[in-house]
Amino acid sequence: MRYAAERRNLGDSIAELREIAGGRDDILAEAAGIEAGWWYASPATHAGYELVAAGMLIMAGGHEGRPLDFNALERWTRVGYERGMRSRRGER
Predict the structure, then answer these.
(1) Alpha-carbon span 75 to 51, nearest angstrom
(2) What is the pLDDT of residues 18-42, one digit of tens each?
């Protein structure tokens, strides 16, 4: 999210995220899904950096001509949403 908030160069940020993940698209899908889902649980209380960050993570995913696993992304988005809703209600 820091990259999104700092409005860094998009191409450089995506390349750095790809490098940090070390080819682990599963990690990128998890992080992107949780960020997006968390935002969707309470959009009125967030500036939207979560969605920008999720988009950057999605763009960093996929390599060697393969796209990011969008089924995993959807699964993790649901997890993020459920966590965000629990947090909103004060649950753990």
Answers:
(1) 16
(2) 999 998 999 999 999 999 999 999 9
